[in-house]
Design a protein that fits this description.
Rossmann fold, 17 helices, 33% helix, binds fructose -6-phosphate
Length: 586
């Protein structure tokens, strides 16, 4: 999603700003821009498209020591040059992440004061509103402190004021913003990835805080304009250099990282007897799991494990639904929020709501010190390293792994699993997916079916396939198909059926026979302990069975199948159209 970078310091800054926004590319974007002071004026270069194309229009040797940059993922108005950030209105030039919910109302008001708007964006309205406030009181800090009284929604913004070529101004509410500090250089960013090449020292801005930053230092004020001292954090994690390491795509690289990550995680907890360091879920009467997309899907798998091993009812809720529904949670409930980025707007709000109800909250998060990591009562880092491909793979598998570990915390897990799972994953890597991918890559519709845990895995499999290959893929509980959807099954319609759970395999097999009888092209993804007749499927992916880890093995198979289908179609696998890595708007 949108990414912000700002720089002020003693050095020429355009290269740093471009490197910063490149580091945020992985979040997904459709347009890009920079603005900087040159002599006494502000120059803006922006366009729809990729950073590498904009870079050709920018002379990075230009003498400028203060500037801002942005990657935009369109929300209000199509991807276009005029809608790209930075936006300028009179004396104010800014980049913005978030959504101004009442922008229409403010726009109408500003038009009455003589403002004219060129773009369709809420950001231009924010820019004009700051200009309006500044024109009244001639004081940037005071103007920024007044935003909270008017603006509904979220904003993280980095601002240049044409009256002041020495300072950058920042303010945030809802959306994340950090300030990296090094000797005489300050970098503002929406994400640690953008500053890490320059400095590991940074602070996290809290809501309604305002900053004024120059090459000589900075001041942060709270919303009452009192100067406050912020803690400087040191980013001590190893941040992987963003590189494909010889793989064709980040997605493939990340799928191949799963073996090592899963092995390391299991070794850490099992070889050191540390399972008990994880929170004890058995003390709760009921558990809610909230998340979006694949994180929600991981929660479904977690539900299966927690209910089966701990005997506690688990309700998995899509975070954007949880926010607006009647809730029955209280101080005896546990709410687990799952999020790779830790910055998904709906999941953040779900945690805030859970806290209002006094429920205990646990974040299962990948990104260090992200918002969900900070606001949850307890955080479990999955330590998957940076995930660059927009479609999550390694983070999903580690989310599932942590949910399995939580559900088995009290029962314990045999250490032999560590070597076994690693060998099993390698077997899954060795399966040839390419030929099968070719057979389905020209299809318009594909169905996925499964029962129980296999239904939950199939949901994730279908999401993976549709998001990167653009093939319409729908997932059904196997027994549900004949209640309507079976009418869509025609000669050759691919139906990918997942069976890893022996206990109910015969039931799914009956459902497979029903679609096969109607001409479906059946691809069976199953574990090697499932006995099936050859005539019920057309193609088969067999993954090793494991009492505990079968779901992870089958999902890796489904991830690889989706990857090769998308590759066969020539899709932009790491950056599928319209999608963003981190969804910071509701
Ligand atoms: C799908 C995918 C998304 C994310 C979802 C939540 O491959 O990546 O569905 O899972 O946007 O993101 P996080 O986990 O960052 O909260």
């Amino acid at each position: 999603m949108c990414g912000i970078v700002g720089y002020v310091g003693k050095k020429n800054c355009l290269k740093t700003i471009i490197d910063g926004i490149k580091a945020l590319e992985y979040r997904g974007y459709d347009s890009v821009g920079v603005a900087y002071f040159r002599d006494d004026d502000i120059s803006i270069i922006k366009d729809k498209g990729r950073i590498m194309d904009l870079e050709k229009k920018i002379d990075t040797n230009i003498e400028t020591k203060i500037g801002i940059g942005h990657t935009r993922w369109a929300t209000h108005g199509e991807p276009s040059k005029v809608n790209a950030h930075p936006h300028r209105v009179n004396k104010i030039t800014l980049v913005h992440n978030g959504i101004i919910e009442n922008y229409d109302e403010i726009r109408t008001e500003l038009i009455k004061y003589g403002y004219e708007f060129k773009s369709d964006t809420d950001t231009e309205v924010l820019c004009a509103y700051i200009d309006y406030l500044y024109s009244k009181n001639n004081d940037m800090i005071k103007s920024l402190s007044m935003l909270k009284d008017k603006i509904k929604g979220s904003y993280a913004t980095c601002i240049l004021c044409s009256d002041d070529k020495e300072h950058l101004y920042i303010v945030k509410k809802g959306s994340p913003l950090i300030l990296g500090t090094s000797n005489d250089e300050y970098i503002i960013a929406s994400d640690i990835a953008a500053i890490i090449d320059k400095t590991k020292r940074y602070m996290i801005l809290d809501d309604d805080e305002i900053g004024i930053i120059s090459g000589n230092g900075y001041e942060i004020c709270d919303s009452d304009l009192k100067v406050i001292k912020k803690d400087i954090l040191t980013f001590d994690k190893n941040i992987d250099k963003i590189s494909k390491d010889g793989y064709d795509h980040f997605m493939l690289k990340e799928i191949y990282e799963e073996d090592d990550l899963i092995k390391k995680t299991l070794s850490y907890y099992l070889n050191n007897d540390l399972l008990k360091d994880l929170p004890d879920l058995s003390k709760y009467k009921e558990i809610y799991i909230v998340g979006c997309g694949s994180a929600y899907n991981a929660g479904l798998v977690g539900k299966y494990y927690i209910e089966n091993y701990l005997n506690i009812p688990v309700y998995v809720e899509i975070a954007s639904e949880f926010r607006y529904k009647k809730l029955f949670i209280n101080d005896e409930s546990l709410v687990i929020a799952i999020s790779q980025s830790g910055e998904t707007a709906d999941t953040i709000e779900a945690v805030n709501i859970a806290k209002k109800y006094k429920a205990k909250t646990i974040g299962i998060v990948n990104t260090y010190k992200s918002t969900i990591a900070r606001i949850s009562d307890e955080v479990i880092y999955i330590n998957a390293g940076i995930e660059v491909a927009v479609a999550t793979t390694k983070a999903y598998s580690l989310q599932v792994l942590y949910l399995i570990l939580l559900s088995l915390r009290n029962k314990g897990i045999d250490k032999n699993i560590i070597n076994k799972i690693s060998n099993d994953i390698k077997e899954v890597y060795e399966i040839d997916y390419k030929e099968l991918a070719k057979k389905i890559s020209n299809k318009e519709h594909i169905f996925f079916i499964g029962r129980g845990i296999d239904y939950y895995l199939a949901i994730e499999g279908s999401l993976k396939l549709k998001e990167i290959s653009y093939i319409h893929a729908e997932c059904y509980a196997a027994g549900e198909l004949k209640h309507g959807t079976i009418s869509l099954i025609d000669k050759g319609t691919p139906v990918i059926s997942v069976i890893t759970n022996k206990d109910i395999s015969s039931k799914t097999i009956s459902n497979i026979k029903e679609v096969k009888a109607r001409g479906a092209y059946v691809i069976l993804v199953c574990t090697d302990d499932i006995v099936v007749d050859k005539d019920i499927y057309d193609d088969i992916i067999i993954v090793p069975s494991d009492e505990v880890m079968s779901p992870i093995l089958s999902i890796i198979g489904l991830q690889l199948l989706s990857y090769y289908v998308a590759k066969d179609k020539g899709c932009d696998i790491d950056k599928p159209r319209n999608l963003a890595k981190s969804v910071t708007v509701e």
